[in-house]
Specification:
The complex is a heterodimer.
Chain A (H helix, E strand, L loop, with lengths): L3 H26 L8 H4 L19 H29 L1 H23 L7
Helix pairs in contact in A: 3-4
Chain B lengths: L1 H37 L10 E3 L2 E3 L6 H11 L10 H18 L9 E2 L40 E2 L10 H21 L3 H32 L4 H10 L3 H4 L1 H14 L11 H4 L9 H26 L8 E2 L2 E6 L2 E7 L2 H27 L7 H33 L1 H34 L11 H8 L11
Antiparallel strand pairs in B: 1-2, 3-4, 5-6, 6-7
Classes of the chains: A mainly alpha, B mainly alpha.
Chain lengths: ~120, ~475
């Protein structure tokens, strides 16, 4: 019996090849402009003159969301295996999960009260 | 034997990839067609093919074809300051991950190949005194491993992974990377803003996506997708045992696909087209295509986990059995292979219906504001999904302790839900058939909900709207 991961690998190879093939075919068939006008190669900003580089500073709230995400994603990592075996664990298992989630919800409440999740 | 397995795997990969590719292409058409119907327009009808002097328009079905051809022949523009490697890699990642996700979704029950006979007794069913199959096909579970009958199961899933749904999470999480590096490498402020929004939004809804499934996993007791479908076939569909999780998952899946009402990352009126502003030609086509492929794979997951996958109500591995509790109403033995093929058709049919619902949602709702989006994700959906997990755990314990009376009642309730599904499906299919053959009347009136409410309050124009 072959390993199912072999199928996954073949799927990965096939999908990458499809992607490369599409780009390759587009490259072969594409129309090429004779001259690149300076207006054409300029970054598109609705006709405005671009000021400064595109890699600009952005608001730290994006980092904040990412931080809170890591917190809850780790929680999911712990809850997923628990969800599968919880019928064997019985009441003690549900109690433990209750405590675990309650602690995290305290963290969530803290984040809400500190307005970390609010988009000003 | 190995060659047969290899051939079977290739055929399965082809079925899945072809289904996703073709349905995604048709969805681009369905999207426009649906929008034109909702907005009372004619919709796409300009693409014409001439055969023997006859002009064929096929209700605009040629438009996806025309699109595809156009994508190939457009100039493959790349901004001079862009990161060349990442700029090319981003569309490949966006599309590749969608397809890799499909590998673990089961599209049919395991076929017991040793039960498949060609002539002479193709249709013949060996039945016992109570109408049960004497073919070695058990009603539940998989094929009977018996060395005498040349045990040969054919699993209708490309990769029957033991980790199942965890693999799905891993792959769907990669979608963020494609969007993020596309925006980062484009050397454009709109793109960067779009990428930031995309990353932030997908990350926010990823948590809900995972948490809403924990409740379903607790009920099913497994992470394998095919075992989940088997549980639903035996008991009740996931939408009945986990209704809240169904809606949470649906909302999170639409948000992950970055479609209206969650299309902030590519909001046309704000960011041109967000993270793929600078993309043109085939690379833009790949992003466009990946979006629709994501709709298809999201629908596949929704169908597998909450809408019974390949399961049809009252159809089991050995035939049709209408049963409420211990009362049997009807029993028809059907050869196992036919039931399985019917299940495959049912799976693809359900996927198409859910895809259409997503298209319908897209053209019915306005876009969120970004703060509303964050508020919905973090302050409503996330606590709701956590509460769902805890309630599921407590209810499960209560049912476990309540004893046999409760479990008998639940069994009958489960059978009733199957009956509800069966009746709903029959009604919808009947309505569809009647609608196909009935006469079509075009009433050009204001029929929208808000217009109706306004009309009932007596304050809007009631004359027919001009097209």
């Amino acid at each position: 019996m072959q390993s199912p991961w072999l199928s996954v690998l073949s799927f990965l190879v096939v999908s990458t090849l499809v992607g490369l093939g599409m780009i390759g075919a587009g490259r072969v068939l594409r129309v090429r402009a004779r001259h690149d006008s300076p207006l054409k190669v300029r970054p598109y900003e609705c006709g405005e003159e671009p000021t400064g580089p595109a890699w600009m500073q952005f608001h730290p709230r994006y980092y904040l969301v990412a931080l809170v995400f890591v917190l809850f994603d780790v929680e999911a990592v712990f809850l997923l295996p628990w969800g599968v075996v919880q019928r064997e664990l019985g009441p003690a298992g549900v109690g433990a999960a209750l405590v675990f989630v309650a602690v995290l919800m305290l963290g969530w409440l803290y984040a809400v009260r500190k307005e970390a999740l609010k988009w000003q | 034997m190995t060659a047969t397995l290899l051939l079977a795997t290739i055929v399965k990969i082809l079925i899945m990839v072809m289904f996703v590719l073709n349905l995604a292409a048709i969805l681009t058409w369905a999207d426009r067609r649906q929008s034109s119907m909702i907005q009372d327009r004619v919709g796409p009808n300009r693409a014409v093919i001439k055969i023997f002097g006859k002009e064929l328009r096929l209700a605009g079905l040629l438009h996806p074809l025309a699109d595809g051809l156009k994508f190939f022949t457009k100039e493959d523009f790349m901004p001079p300051n862009a990161d060349r490697l990442l700029f090319t890699l981003a569309p490949i990642m966006a599309m590749g991950m969608v397809f890799t996700l499909v590998a673990t979704i089961p599209f049919g029950d395991t076929i017991c190949l040793h039960q498949f006979r060609l002539f002479p007794d193709f249709w013949h069913v060996h039945t016992g005194p109570h109408g049960e199959l004497l073919d070695g096909v058990e009603r539940w579970g998989t094929c009977a491993a018996d060395s005498r009958n040349g045990y040969a199961p054919l699993e209708l899933v490309v990769a029957p992974l033991g980790v199942g749904i965890l693999y799905v999470f891993a792959m769907s999480g990669q979608g963020i990377i494609g969007a993020a590096i596309a925006g980062w490498s484009s050397d454009n402020k709109f793109s960067l803003m779009g990428a930031l929004r995309a990353a932030s939004q997908m990350v926010s809804y990823e948590v809900t996506l995972g948490m809403s499934l924990v409740g379903a996993m607790m009920i099913y007791g497994t992470v394998r997708l095919d075992d989940m479908v088997r549980w639903q076939q035996e008991h009740a569909w996931g939408i009945f045992v986990q209704p809240l999780a169904f809606f949470l998952f649906f909302a999170a899946a639409v948000a992950e696909n970055k479609r209206i009402p969650f299309d902030l990352p590519e909001a046309e009126s704000e960011l041109v087209s967000g993270y793929f502003t600078e993309y043109a030609g085939m690379k833009f086509g790949m992003f466009y295509f990946a979006e629709y492929a994501e709709v298809v794979t999201g629908s596949m997951l929704l169908v597998t986990i909450f809408l019974g996958g390949w399961a049809l109500p009252f159809f089991h591995r050995d035939g049709l059995l209408v049963q409420f509790g211990d009362t049997t109403l009807l029993r028809v033995a059907i050869p196992h292979v036919f039931v399985t093929l019917l299940g495959v058709l049912a799976f693809f049919g359900k996927v198409i219906v859910v895809c259409w619902i997503q298209v319908f949602v897209r053209w019915s709702l306005p876009r969120f504001r970004y703060d509303q989006l964050m508020k919905l994700g973090w302050r409503l959906l996330l606590p709701a999904s956590l509460a769902n997990i805890l309630v599921t755990g407590v209810v499960w314990l209560a049912v476990d302790k309540a004893g046999s009376a409760a479990s008998d009642g639940l069994r009958i309730a489960a059978d009733v839900t199957q009956a509800v599904v069966a009746m709903a499906m029959t009604y919808l299919i009947g309505r569809g058939v009647v609608g196909m053959f009935g006469t079509v009347t075009h009433e050009r009136n204001i029929i929208g909900t808000s217009a109706g409410i306004a009309a009932r309050r007596g304050g809007t124009k009631t004359e027919p709207m001009q097209a």
